[in-house]
Amino acid sequence: MLWRLRARIGYAVARRLFHWSWLVKQPRGWRWLEGQFARMANLGDVAAQSFYGHILLFRGQGFGAREEGMRLLRLAAIAGDAKAAYQLGALSLAGDTRQAPDAVDAARWWTLAAAAGHPLAARRLADLYREGGPGLPADAEQAARFVQRARELGL
């Protein structure tokens, strides 16, 4: 129980210090911050999984960091984090060297994000269904549904 409290306090401090660029640029400071983020994410905190997943995906060093970032984003998205689900949809649609672009997978992730209240996911879904994509035929009815959802969410 005490170790969970210590992890939460360390994570809260690290999130505040994350905005201090001089600390982030220091290798020792960055390792400490990363350790706090990783500990909280490993404890199953959805917000920490999303935050650290994004850090690993965009700032991580090497293939393993990217894979771990995607794993953490998947966990957060499945738990209901809209930002993580949106990012996974964008990655699915973009594809990479190991996987071709997949509009069906992108639509699945963006549907989760739109349901969780992410307005840009609803807009991107509307565009995707209007135009179609790799493996996903155009569907005007679905496009109209997500245009309406984007309006409800403020776009």
Would you mind describing this structure in some detail?
This protein has helices spanning 2-17, 21-24, 27-42, 46-59, 63-78, 82-94, 103-115, 119-131, 140-152. By secondary structure, the protein is mainly α. It is elongated, with a radius of gyration of 18 Å. 34% of the residues are buried. The mean pLDDT is 93. It holds the Pfam family Sel1. This is Sel1 repeat-containing protein. InterPro entries: Sel1-like, TPR-like_helical_dom_sf.
Number of distinct beta strands = 0
Question: What structural category characterises the helix and strand content?
Answer: mainly alpha
Rg calculated over all Cα atoms: 18 Å
DSSP helical segment count: 9
Order of helices and strands: HHHHHHHHH
> Which percent bin holds the helix content?
over 70%
Number of domains: 2
Q: Strand fraction band?
A: under 5%
- Detail the poorly predicted runs: none
Shape: elongated
Q: Mean pLDDT, nearest integer?
A: 93
N/C terminus separation:
43 Å
Biggest β-sheet strands, sense, barrel: none
InterPro entries: Sel1-like, TPR-like_helical_dom_sf
Organism: Pseudomonas borbori
Protein name: Sel1 repeat-containing protein
Pfam families: Sel1
Descriptive tags:
76% helix; single chain; 155 residues; elongated; 9 helices; 0% strand; mainly alpha; 2 domains
What is the topology?
Elements: H1 2-17, H2 21-24, H3 27-42, H4 46-59, H5 63-78, H6 82-94, H7 103-115, H8 119-131, H9 140-152
Please sum up the structure shown.
The chain has about 160 residues and is mainly α. It folds into 2 domains: about 1-80; about 85-155. About 75% of the residues lie in helices and about 0% in strands.
